[in-house]
Amino acid sequence: MTLHWTRLAQDGNARRGVLHTAHGEVETPVFMPVGTAGTVKAMTADSVRATGARMVLGNTYHLMLRPGAERVGRLGGLHTMMDWHGPILTDSGGYQVMSLNELRQMDEGGVTFRSHLDGSKHRLTPERSIEIQRLLDADVTMCLDECTPFPATEEQAATSMRLSMRWAKRCRDAFVPREGYGLFGIVQGSTYPELRAESVAALSGIGFEGYAVGGLAVGEGQEMMFGVLDCTLPLMPTHAPRYLMGVGTPSDIVGAVRRGIDMFDCVIPTRSGRTGRAYTSRGMMNLRNAKHAEDKRPIDPDCACPACARHSRAYLHHLIKAEEMLGPMLLTWHNLQYYQDLTRGLRDAISAGRLDAHAAALEAAWAAGDAPPEDAAAAELAEDRETLR
Ligand SMILES: [Zn+2]
User: Fold this and answer.
1) Active-site residues: which are they?
2) How far does the centroid of ligand 1 lie from the alpha carbon of residue 300, in Å?
Protein backbone atom coordinates (compact mmCIF):
# COMPACT_ATOMS: atom_id res chain seq x y z
CA MET A 1 0.00 0.00 0.00
CA THR A 2 1.26 3.48 -0.77
CA LEU A 3 1.71 6.10 1.92
CA HIS A 4 -1.64 6.85 3.56
CA TRP A 5 -3.27 8.62 6.46
CA THR A 6 -5.90 7.46 8.93
CA ARG A 7 -8.04 9.71 11.11
CA LEU A 8 -8.11 9.05 14.86
CA ALA A 9 -10.21 11.97 16.09
CA GLN A 10 -11.90 15.15 14.95
CA ASP A 11 -12.74 18.35 16.86
CA GLY A 12 -14.55 20.91 14.73
CA ASN A 13 -12.53 21.04 11.52
CA ALA A 14 -9.33 19.92 13.27
CA ARG A 15 -8.14 16.37 12.72
CA ARG A 16 -5.86 14.05 14.62
CA GLY A 17 -4.44 11.17 12.64
CA VAL A 18 -1.55 8.92 11.74
CA LEU A 19 0.55 9.07 8.59
CA HIS A 20 1.74 5.60 7.58
CA THR A 21 5.04 5.71 5.67
CA ALA A 22 7.85 3.42 4.57
CA HIS A 23 9.93 4.73 7.47
CA GLY A 24 7.34 4.49 10.21
CA GLU A 25 4.20 6.12 11.51
CA VAL A 26 3.86 9.80 12.36
CA GLU A 27 1.09 11.35 14.39
CA THR A 28 -0.59 14.43 12.94
CA PRO A 29 -0.85 17.39 13.28
CA VAL A 30 2.90 17.17 12.77
CA PHE A 31 5.60 19.81 12.60
CA MET A 32 8.55 18.82 10.39
CA PRO A 33 11.89 20.54 11.17
CA VAL A 34 13.65 21.73 8.02
CA GLY A 35 16.83 19.84 7.15
CA THR A 36 17.75 22.00 4.19
CA ALA A 37 21.03 20.49 3.01
CA GLY A 38 20.86 17.08 4.67
CA THR A 39 21.01 18.43 8.22
CA VAL A 40 18.72 20.32 10.57
CA LYS A 41 21.15 23.16 11.17
CA ALA A 42 22.95 23.11 14.56
CA MET A 43 21.35 19.77 15.54
CA THR A 44 22.49 16.15 15.42
CA ALA A 45 19.90 13.64 14.20
CA ASP A 46 19.72 12.29 17.78
CA SER A 47 18.98 15.73 19.20
CA VAL A 48 16.24 16.27 16.58
CA ARG A 49 14.69 12.95 17.67
CA ALA A 50 15.02 13.95 21.34
CA THR A 51 12.73 16.95 20.74
CA GLY A 52 9.99 14.52 19.73
CA ALA A 53 10.26 15.23 15.99
CA ARG A 54 9.42 12.17 13.90
CA MET A 55 9.56 13.53 10.34
CA VAL A 56 11.88 16.05 8.70
CA LEU A 57 12.05 17.95 5.43
CA GLY A 58 14.90 18.02 2.92
CA ASN A 59 15.37 20.55 0.12
CA THR A 60 15.70 19.15 -3.39
CA TYR A 61 17.24 22.35 -4.77
CA HIS A 62 20.12 22.41 -2.27
CA LEU A 63 20.77 18.66 -2.41
CA MET A 64 20.67 18.45 -6.23
CA LEU A 65 23.40 21.09 -6.44
CA ARG A 66 25.47 19.75 -3.54
CA PRO A 67 26.30 16.92 -3.08
CA GLY A 68 24.09 15.98 -6.08
CA ALA A 69 21.08 13.65 -6.18
CA GLU A 70 22.94 10.76 -7.86
CA ARG A 71 25.65 10.96 -5.19
CA VAL A 72 23.07 10.92 -2.37
CA GLY A 73 21.57 7.86 -4.09
CA ARG A 74 24.96 6.10 -4.20
CA LEU A 75 25.43 6.91 -0.49
CA GLY A 76 22.24 4.99 0.28
CA GLY A 77 19.73 7.85 0.18
CA LEU A 78 19.05 10.74 2.49
CA HIS A 79 17.98 8.62 5.49
CA THR A 80 21.30 6.78 5.56
CA MET A 81 23.38 9.83 4.68
CA MET A 82 21.99 11.98 7.50
CA ASP A 83 21.31 9.15 10.00
CA TRP A 84 17.59 9.98 10.06
CA HIS A 85 15.59 6.77 9.95
CA GLY A 86 12.13 8.30 10.26
CA PRO A 87 10.09 9.62 7.33
CA ILE A 88 11.43 12.43 5.14
CA LEU A 89 9.48 14.81 2.94
CA THR A 90 11.33 16.60 0.18
CA ASP A 91 10.14 19.70 -1.61
CA SER A 92 10.30 19.79 -5.39
CA GLY A 93 13.08 22.35 -5.73
CA GLY A 94 10.77 24.80 -7.47
CA TYR A 95 10.46 27.30 -4.63
CA GLN A 96 14.20 27.80 -4.25
CA VAL A 97 14.83 27.88 -7.99
CA MET A 98 12.39 30.77 -8.17
CA SER A 99 13.48 32.56 -5.01
CA LEU A 100 17.27 32.15 -5.25
CA ASN A 101 17.74 32.62 -8.98
CA GLU A 102 17.08 35.90 -10.71
CA LEU A 103 18.22 34.60 -14.10
CA ARG A 104 15.93 31.55 -14.27
CA GLN A 105 14.00 30.86 -17.46
CA MET A 106 10.58 29.28 -17.26
CA ASP A 107 8.91 27.48 -20.13
CA GLU A 108 6.16 24.88 -20.50
CA GLY A 109 8.67 22.07 -20.10
CA GLY A 110 10.36 23.25 -16.92
CA VAL A 111 12.79 25.81 -15.57
CA THR A 112 16.43 26.46 -16.47
CA PHE A 113 18.64 28.19 -13.94
CA ARG A 114 22.20 28.75 -12.80
CA SER A 115 23.45 27.42 -9.47
CA HIS A 116 23.82 30.09 -6.79
CA LEU A 117 26.95 28.17 -5.68
CA ASP A 118 29.08 28.09 -8.83
CA GLY A 119 27.03 29.49 -11.71
CA SER A 120 26.67 26.07 -13.40
CA LYS A 121 23.59 25.60 -15.59
CA HIS A 122 20.78 23.23 -14.53
CA ARG A 123 17.32 22.29 -15.71
CA LEU A 124 14.47 21.16 -13.51
CA THR A 125 11.42 19.57 -15.11
CA PRO A 126 8.52 17.80 -13.40
CA GLU A 127 10.05 14.45 -14.43
CA ARG A 128 13.56 15.35 -13.21
CA SER A 129 12.21 16.65 -9.88
CA ILE A 130 10.44 13.33 -9.30
CA GLU A 131 13.60 11.42 -10.28
CA ILE A 132 15.73 13.47 -7.88
CA GLN A 133 13.31 12.92 -5.01
CA ARG A 134 13.38 9.16 -5.71
CA LEU A 135 17.18 9.21 -5.57
CA LEU A 136 16.97 11.06 -2.24
CA ASP A 137 14.49 8.32 -1.15
CA ALA A 138 11.84 10.76 0.10
CA ASP A 139 8.82 9.12 1.76
CA VAL A 140 6.77 12.11 0.60
CA THR A 141 7.60 13.52 -2.83
CA MET A 142 6.19 16.91 -3.76
CA CYS A 143 5.03 17.89 -7.25
CA LEU A 144 7.07 20.53 -9.04
CA ASP A 145 5.01 23.70 -9.21
CA GLU A 146 5.48 27.38 -9.84
CA CYS A 147 5.21 29.32 -6.60
CA THR A 148 3.09 32.27 -7.75
CA PRO A 149 4.62 35.56 -6.59
CA PHE A 150 2.61 37.73 -4.20
CA PRO A 151 0.87 39.93 -5.02
CA ALA A 152 -0.29 38.60 -8.39
CA THR A 153 -3.17 39.72 -10.60
CA GLU A 154 -5.94 37.19 -11.11
CA GLU A 155 -4.69 36.61 -14.66
CA GLN A 156 -1.09 36.02 -13.52
CA ALA A 157 -2.30 33.71 -10.74
CA ALA A 158 -4.50 31.75 -13.16
CA THR A 159 -1.75 31.28 -15.77
CA SER A 160 0.72 30.21 -13.10
CA MET A 161 -1.71 27.83 -11.35
CA ARG A 162 -2.75 26.15 -14.63
CA LEU A 163 0.89 25.54 -15.53
CA SER A 164 1.36 23.95 -12.09
CA MET A 165 -1.67 21.72 -12.68
CA ARG A 166 -0.23 20.50 -16.02
CA TRP A 167 3.05 19.83 -14.23
CA ALA A 168 1.18 18.00 -11.44
CA LYS A 169 -0.18 15.54 -14.03
CA ARG A 170 3.33 15.01 -15.43
CA CYS A 171 4.65 14.42 -11.89
CA ARG A 172 1.92 11.84 -11.25
CA ASP A 173 2.83 10.03 -14.48
CA ALA A 174 6.55 10.08 -13.63
CA PHE A 175 6.14 8.88 -10.04
CA VAL A 176 6.75 5.17 -9.59
CA PRO A 177 4.52 3.83 -6.76
CA ARG A 178 6.33 2.05 -3.94
CA GLU A 179 5.08 0.61 -0.64
CA GLY A 180 4.88 3.38 1.96
CA TYR A 181 5.87 6.16 -0.44
CA GLY A 182 3.59 8.87 -1.77
CA LEU A 183 3.24 11.92 -3.98
CA PHE A 184 1.52 15.14 -2.87
CA GLY A 185 -0.15 17.65 -5.20
CA ILE A 186 0.03 21.37 -4.38
CA VAL A 187 -2.98 23.68 -4.51
CA GLN A 188 -2.12 27.09 -5.98
CA GLY A 189 -4.25 30.07 -7.02
CA SER A 190 -2.89 32.88 -4.86
CA THR A 191 -5.62 34.70 -2.93
CA TYR A 192 -8.41 34.03 -5.45
CA PRO A 193 -11.07 31.60 -4.16
CA GLU A 194 -12.23 30.54 -7.65
CA LEU A 195 -8.67 29.71 -8.68
CA ARG A 196 -8.04 27.77 -5.47
CA ALA A 197 -11.26 25.82 -6.17
CA GLU A 198 -10.18 25.12 -9.76
CA SER A 199 -6.80 23.93 -8.49
CA VAL A 200 -8.32 21.58 -5.89
CA ALA A 201 -10.64 20.12 -8.55
CA ALA A 202 -7.73 19.57 -10.98
CA LEU A 203 -5.60 17.82 -8.34
CA SER A 204 -8.47 15.71 -6.99
CA GLY A 205 -9.14 14.59 -10.54
CA ILE A 206 -5.55 13.38 -10.92
CA GLY A 207 -5.45 11.83 -7.43
CA PHE A 208 -2.62 12.09 -4.90
CA GLU A 209 -1.66 10.50 -1.58
CA GLY A 210 -1.79 13.95 0.05
CA TYR A 211 -2.60 17.55 -0.79
CA ALA A 212 -0.57 20.64 0.07
CA VAL A 213 -1.65 24.26 0.14
CA GLY A 214 1.13 26.27 -1.48
CA GLY A 215 1.78 29.91 -2.22
CA LEU A 216 1.04 31.12 1.31
CA ALA A 217 3.27 32.78 3.94
CA VAL A 218 4.72 34.85 1.12
CA GLY A 219 3.85 38.23 2.57
CA GLU A 220 0.04 38.15 2.52
CA GLY A 221 -0.31 38.23 6.32
CA GLN A 222 -2.04 35.87 8.73
CA GLU A 223 -5.57 37.13 8.19
CA MET A 224 -5.42 36.67 4.42
CA MET A 225 -3.70 33.29 4.81
CA PHE A 226 -6.49 32.06 7.09
CA GLY A 227 -9.01 33.48 4.60
CA VAL A 228 -7.51 31.36 1.81
CA LEU A 229 -7.58 28.28 4.08
CA ASP A 230 -11.23 28.96 4.99
CA CYS A 231 -12.27 28.88 1.34
CA THR A 232 -9.88 26.11 0.21
CA LEU A 233 -9.91 23.43 2.94
CA PRO A 234 -13.64 22.59 2.78
CA LEU A 235 -13.13 21.64 -0.89
CA MET A 236 -10.16 19.33 -0.28
CA PRO A 237 -10.40 15.53 0.01
CA THR A 238 -11.01 14.52 3.64
CA HIS A 239 -9.36 11.09 3.48
CA ALA A 240 -5.88 12.43 2.67
CA PRO A 241 -3.35 14.43 4.70
CA ARG A 242 -3.25 18.19 4.17
CA TYR A 243 0.04 20.03 4.32
CA LEU A 244 0.50 23.80 4.69
CA MET A 245 3.89 24.53 3.16
CA GLY A 246 6.38 26.84 4.84
CA VAL A 247 4.16 27.79 7.80
CA GLY A 248 4.69 29.18 10.33
CA THR A 249 4.65 30.87 13.73
CA PRO A 250 3.04 29.07 16.69
CA SER A 251 -0.06 31.22 16.21
CA ASP A 252 -0.19 30.37 12.46
CA ILE A 253 0.01 26.66 13.30
CA VAL A 254 -2.77 26.77 15.88
CA GLY A 255 -5.05 28.68 13.48
CA ALA A 256 -4.31 26.32 10.60
CA VAL A 257 -4.83 23.17 12.70
CA ARG A 258 -8.21 24.53 13.77
CA ARG A 259 -9.07 24.88 10.08
CA GLY A 260 -8.05 21.30 9.24
CA ILE A 261 -4.34 21.29 8.33
CA ASP A 262 -2.34 18.18 9.35
CA MET A 263 1.28 18.91 8.38
CA PHE A 264 3.66 21.84 8.67
CA ASP A 265 7.27 22.76 7.97
CA CYS A 266 9.01 26.05 8.58
CA VAL A 267 12.48 27.46 9.16
CA ILE A 268 11.22 29.85 11.84
CA PRO A 269 12.20 27.73 14.89
CA THR A 270 15.65 26.86 13.54
CA ARG A 271 16.47 30.18 11.88
CA SER A 272 15.21 32.34 14.72
CA GLY A 273 17.12 30.12 17.16
CA ARG A 274 20.32 30.95 15.32
CA THR A 275 19.62 34.67 15.65
CA GLY A 276 18.86 34.61 19.38
CA ARG A 277 15.07 34.34 19.37
CA ALA A 278 13.14 31.86 21.48
CA TYR A 279 9.49 30.89 21.03
CA THR A 280 8.00 30.00 24.41
CA SER A 281 4.72 29.25 26.16
CA ARG A 282 4.87 32.93 27.22
CA GLY A 283 5.52 34.49 23.83
CA MET A 284 8.63 35.20 21.79
CA MET A 285 11.80 36.34 23.53
CA ASN A 286 14.92 37.93 22.04
CA LEU A 287 17.92 36.70 24.01
CA ARG A 288 20.08 39.48 22.54
CA ASN A 289 18.17 41.96 24.66
CA ALA A 290 20.26 43.40 27.54
CA LYS A 291 17.40 42.87 29.98
CA HIS A 292 18.33 39.16 30.10
CA ALA A 293 22.00 39.80 31.08
CA GLU A 294 21.56 38.81 34.73
CA ASP A 295 18.28 36.92 34.57
CA LYS A 296 18.78 33.56 36.25
CA ARG A 297 15.41 32.13 35.13
CA PRO A 298 15.15 29.55 32.34
CA ILE A 299 13.76 30.67 28.98
CA ASP A 300 10.60 28.67 29.58
CA PRO A 301 9.86 26.99 32.94
CA ASP A 302 7.44 24.63 31.16
CA CYS A 303 10.08 23.28 28.76
CA ALA A 304 12.26 20.21 29.37
CA CYS A 305 14.91 20.93 26.69
CA PRO A 306 18.58 21.25 27.75
CA ALA A 307 18.55 25.03 27.27
CA CYS A 308 15.70 25.38 29.76
CA ALA A 309 16.53 22.49 32.11
CA ARG A 310 20.18 23.41 32.59
CA HIS A 311 20.76 27.06 31.67
CA SER A 312 19.64 30.58 32.51
CA ARG A 313 18.50 33.35 30.20
CA ALA A 314 21.66 35.20 31.35
CA TYR A 315 23.96 32.44 30.08
CA LEU A 316 22.13 32.16 26.76
CA HIS A 317 22.28 35.96 26.40
CA HIS A 318 26.04 35.77 27.00
CA LEU A 319 26.51 32.97 24.44
CA ILE A 320 24.59 34.89 21.78
CA LYS A 321 26.44 38.16 22.48
CA ALA A 322 29.80 36.36 22.42
CA GLU A 323 28.77 34.58 19.19
CA GLU A 324 29.54 31.21 20.73
CA MET A 325 28.33 28.26 18.67
CA LEU A 326 26.54 26.75 21.66
CA GLY A 327 24.06 29.66 21.78
CA PRO A 328 22.41 28.89 18.41
CA MET A 329 22.61 25.15 19.17
CA LEU A 330 20.73 25.48 22.47
CA LEU A 331 18.16 27.95 21.13
CA THR A 332 17.50 25.81 18.05
CA TRP A 333 16.95 22.81 20.33
CA HIS A 334 14.61 24.83 22.52
CA ASN A 335 12.57 26.18 19.60
CA LEU A 336 12.20 22.74 18.01
CA GLN A 337 11.20 21.33 21.40
CA TYR A 338 8.64 24.10 21.76
CA TYR A 339 7.14 23.37 18.32
CA GLN A 340 6.96 19.64 19.12
CA ASP A 341 5.36 20.31 22.52
CA LEU A 342 2.93 22.69 20.82
CA THR A 343 1.80 20.14 18.21
CA ARG A 344 1.58 17.35 20.80
CA GLY A 345 -0.66 19.60 22.91
CA LEU A 346 -2.85 20.25 19.87
CA ARG A 347 -3.14 16.52 19.14
CA ASP A 348 -4.17 15.80 22.73
CA ALA A 349 -6.68 18.66 22.73
CA ILE A 350 -8.27 17.35 19.51
CA SER A 351 -8.63 13.87 21.04
CA ALA A 352 -10.17 15.39 24.17
CA GLY A 353 -12.55 17.57 22.14
CA ARG A 354 -11.29 20.75 23.80
CA LEU A 355 -9.24 22.39 21.05
CA ASP A 356 -11.03 25.75 21.25
CA ALA A 357 -10.31 26.13 24.96
CA HIS A 358 -6.74 24.92 24.52
CA ALA A 359 -6.11 27.41 21.70
CA ALA A 360 -7.58 30.25 23.74
CA ALA A 361 -5.32 29.36 26.68
CA LEU A 362 -2.25 29.27 24.42
CA GLU A 363 -3.04 32.68 22.93
CA ALA A 364 -3.69 34.18 26.38
CA ALA A 365 -0.36 32.88 27.74
CA TRP A 366 1.56 34.23 24.73
CA ALA A 367 -0.06 37.63 25.23
CA ALA A 368 0.51 37.74 28.99
CA GLY A 369 4.10 36.54 29.12
CA ASP A 370 7.59 37.89 28.60
CA ALA A 371 7.04 38.65 24.94
CA PRO A 372 8.37 42.00 23.73
CA PRO A 373 5.88 44.84 23.27
CA GLU A 374 3.58 44.29 20.32
CA ASP A 375 5.45 46.59 17.92
CA ALA A 376 8.79 44.94 18.54
CA ALA A 377 7.23 41.50 18.27
CA ALA A 378 5.60 42.42 14.98
CA ALA A 379 8.89 43.75 13.60
CA GLU A 380 10.77 40.61 14.61
CA LEU A 381 8.02 38.43 13.20
CA ALA A 382 8.20 40.34 9.92
CA GLU A 383 11.93 39.69 9.90
CA ASP A 384 11.36 35.97 10.53
CA ARG A 385 8.76 35.78 7.78
CA GLU A 386 10.96 37.65 5.34
CA THR A 387 13.61 35.00 5.62
CA LEU A 388 11.26 32.02 5.39
CA ARG A 389 13.23 29.01 4.12
ZN1 LIG B 1 13.42 24.85 26.23
Assistant:
1) 91, 265
2) 6
